[in-house]
Each structure stands twice: as C-alpha cells, then as structure tokens.
Amino acid sequence: MLSLTILDGMALIRKEIRICMGSSCFSRGNRHTLHLLQKYLTDHQLERDVILKGNHCFNECSKGPILKIDTRVYEEVNKDNIIEILEQELGDL
To answer: Which of 10, 12, 24, 33 supports an S-S bond with 61, CB 3.0-4.6 Å?
Structure first.
C-alpha cells in the first residue's frame, strides 16, 4: 500500500514495508533481516519515505521468512538477499 503525505505543499509517496515477526520467520532469521533493513533505511536516509511495520504472520510459514513491500511479497528473505530487494524497491526514492 502506498501512502501519500503532503509535506510543505508537495506530495511525498511513501512505501510500506511489513516484515513477518511470527515465530517461524523470526527463528529463520527475520530478527537479523530486521536489523539490516533498519540499518539500510538509516544509512540511505529513508526513514521519512518508508513506513516499517512488524507483522505477526502472513500464513506462509513454509515459504518464510516473509517480507512485504507495498503489495509485493518476498519469500525466503535473508541476510544474503535483503539488500538487493531493498535496492530494487527503494532505489528510486
């Protein structure tokens, strides 16, 4: 879901990232993925452009860890592919 915010008379489109924090995804590494995600947002000064939320479960545990950016769902997200996903999704912000 894209969010639209008016800032100083200009529209600012924000992305929404939901990361699964359910027990299966969490035990499969989403704790580490969350830290990398937060660091990426900070390092690229995207905190105002991205809404980051934890999600209890996406009911796709066998495909986890799960990350959802707007309407796109990423499966088997880990420390090796999270940066590539973020660059693909957030590179134009």
So the answer is: 24
